[in-house]
Design a protein that fits this description.
heterodimer; A: alpha/beta; TIM Barrel; six-stranded parallel sheet; two-stranded antiparallel ribbon; 19 helices; globular; B: alpha/beta; 2 domains; five-stranded parallel sheet; 9 helices
Chain lengths: 447, 206
């Protein structure tokens, strides 16, 4: 439980309150005192890393995208369409790897919901993809160049009436939702609801309700596996919500990679204004989800600001300002923005370090970034981790894995503020390499 | 060489570049010469990319300017009967199971403007389809793209099948989670970090 005066607390106090609530075991349905104690110790260890205190040992965390499916022989399609089978696979995975300390959010997704709304942005297993193919994004331009002004003027309204009907044709009728100002006077209200009663709108509302019902069905099933892991095995969750850098929201699935990059030349001011318009949404999305889950960490994958994707000058102009505002906005609410830094960030470290972001309030999982430099530039003020390559999990040996982990620990462990993690969402690994990674993490992680 | 056109492209000045290209063509310049200017400009952009002085937005934008000029040039080239000399054939595609295309498209485009005849097989391409394409057009260079770690094994299979067809065939891999370790695993001849690396490799093999 958060304190009653939570809303009036300073950001740092909010963070401490949220972490304390997350760590606490009282009133949570643990299966045994042992599970509760495991949970408490692990959550405390992770919180210590975030707050830059040296724990007793380095925590080992991983996001296992499609890994549990591969290890348990459950198809990826089952993880979208056959929840009981998926849940059984997940539980088998947790039982096989009791060394896993944190709930490793994986690709267990509600296929029927995507079907119901006819989701256009992705293809997923068991539908357009074969049951053994992981879900994948379809690059495209889902927002036209001449829609910038509307997005900038009214981002939520544009998303509701234009974007969502486009990327979810199952909800096409949302395009006809009447103006909400029509609720502001008694005699207006019947006109407002007459608009809501138009067949395309009611169809969309019914589809929304059905999608919510299907989502709750899914939540019930995945909730059981989470319950097993968290309350049965004492594995704290470290992902409470999602967000992205505003430039990535715009460039990934609104304008698309190609278009946003040309926009940087053709209409730079609109790109900047759009990023600014999306920032409050990016903050609210992260905070609402993390607060709702009681897990004060928002997962923020970073894409188009990576080394080689744009110049330092463009990073400074297009990418960083709205990302910085997003990070600060999330921190202000006592939620930890946990950046998942895909690709390399070697050219960005010094610039980000200069920003003087709040100390002990953010986490950064790196992929192909030089970790000695990450430690040097970020170590004094942020928790860092990651960097174990996906290729090593899949094509290495237990010996090369052990050596990599030992070296990484030597570089990053001193003084705390470090968590051991893969540099990628793990879809594939040789089982012996995954095991070697877990064991080496425990062995070399002690302080 | 028309220096003004080259500069307009390398300075990312779309409006000037298109106006100049149109003016040159209208005043009777050879379509091939105009394309050569574009090629020279892209070479400069490519060199800057390699040197870390420009990045993917510049590559994409300059490429788009070039594509627009190529659309102006093509009808006139057909009329003039001129043909471009190609320095080699490349078969390229995103391997089986992976449907990401953007990086592969950039590489295919850059290979094309650097004088290669490129057969782009698209995404989710089975090993057999790479073999068929290489057999059909006699390409000695194959580029395998993949964004995800699920691409490693299909890459390995594809390399093996291409080797069975012709041990002399050269295979390069590239994409998000590729590195030297994956190259060794798949048995490919080379790993390219980006589009310019792919061009350097292909030129070395052509």
């Amino acid at each position: 439980m958060l304190p009653e005066n939570f809303a009036s607390l300073a950001p740092e106090q909010k963070l401490e309150a949220r972490l304390a609530d997350w760590i606490a075991t009282e009133g949570k349905p643990f299966a045994s005192p042992e599970a509760a104690e495991k949970y408490r110790a692990r959550a405390q260890r992770y919180a210590d890393v975030i707050r830059l205190r040296q724990p007793d040992r380095v925590p080992t965390t991983a996001f296992t995208g499609d890994l549990q499916q591969h290890f348990t022989g459950t198809s990826l399609g089952d993880y979208f369409y056959d929840y009981p089978k998926a849940a059984a696979g997940a539980i088998e995975f947790f039982e096989r790897f009791p060394e896993l300390e944190y709930y490793p959010a994986s690709n267990f997704e509600p296929g029927p919901v995507y079907d119901k709304v006819k989701y256009q942005l992705y293809r997923w297993p068991g539908n357009q993809l074969k049951a053994d193919q992981g879900f994948q994004y379809i690059e495209g331009e889902y927002m036209a160049a001449d829609e910038y002004d509307e997005l900038i003027r009214n981002p939520d309204g544009w998303l509701l009436r234009t974007y969502v009907p486009r990327i979810m044709p199952g909800l096409a009728g949302l395009a006809n939702i009447p103006v909400l100002l029509g609720t502001s006077e008694l005699p207006f209200v019947p006109f407002f609801f007459a608009g809501m009663a138009a067949p395309p709108v009611t169809e969309a509302l019914e589809a929304l309700l059905e999608s919510s019902r299907l989502t709750m069905e899914y939540m019930g099933q995945i909730g059981q596996t989470i319950g097993f892991a968290v309350f049965g095995q004492g594995m704290p969750m470290t992902l409470g919500g999602f967000s992205k850098a505003p430039f990535d929201f715009l460039g990934d699935t609104l304008r698309g990679t190609r278009s946003v990059m040309m926009d940087m030349f053709r209409r730079p001011q609109k790109v900047l204004a759009a990023c600014e318009a999306l920032t409050p949404l990016a903050i609210k999305m992260a905070v609402d989800a993390a607060a709702g889950a009681g897990v004060p960490f928002a997962f923020i994958p970073l894409h188009k600001g990576a080394d080689g994707f744009m110049s330092d000058a463009d990073f400074e102009k297009f990418y960083w300002p709205s990302l910085e505002a997003t990070i600060r906005g999330i921190v202000a609410e006592g939620v930890v923005p946990a950046m998942f830094v895909e690709g390399g960030y070697n050219s960005r470290l010094a610039r980000i370090a200069e920003a003087n972001l709040p100390k002990g309030a953010t986490a950064w999982t790196f992929d192909q970034t030089d970790m000695a430099n990450a430690k040097k530039f970020f170590g004094p003020w942020a928790a860092i981790g990651g960097n174990v390559p996906g290729s090593l999990f899949q094509t290495g040996t237990p010996e090369t894995m052990r050596a990599y982990v030992a070296q990484l620990m030597e570089t990053c462990k001193p003084g705390g503020g470090f968590f051991m993690a893969p540099g990628v969402v793990l879809d594939h690994s040789k089982e012996e390499n995954f095991r070697a990674w877990l064991e080496a993490g425990l062995e070399f992680g002690k302080y | 060489m028309h220096q003004e056109l080259i500069t307009a492209i390398t300075e990312m000045d779309e409006e000037t570049a298109l106006a100049l290209a149109g003016k040159l063509l209208d005043s009777g310049a050879s379509p091939i010469e105009v394309l050569d200017d574009c090629k020279a400009a892209m070479e400069i952009v490519g060199k800057r990319f390699e040197a870390g002085d420009c990045f993917i937005p510049e590559l994409i934008f300059a490429g788009d300017i070039l594509a627009q000029i190529a659309r102006l040039v093509r009808p006139r080239m057909a009329a003039s009967g001129e043909v471009q000399h190609k320095i080699g054939k490349v078969v390229i595609g995103t391997v089986q199971g992976d449907i990401h295309d953007i990086a592969k498209d950039i590489v295919a485009f850059m290979l094309d403007i650097n004088g290669f005849e490129v057969t782009d097989l698209g995404v989710d391409v089975a090993p057999e389809a790479f073999v068929e394409a290489a057999k059909a057009n006699g390409a000695k260079i194959v580029g395998l793209s993949g964004f995800l770690t699920l691409a490693y094994d299909p890459m390995k299979d594809t390399v093996a099948q291409l080797r069975a067809l012709d041990p002399g065939i050269k295979v390069m891999i590239g994409g998000g989670q590729m590195d030297e370790q994956v190259r060794a695993y798949t048995g490919a001849d080379a790993y390219g970090k980006d589009a310019m690396a792919a061009i350097a490799l292909a030129k070395g093999w052509a």
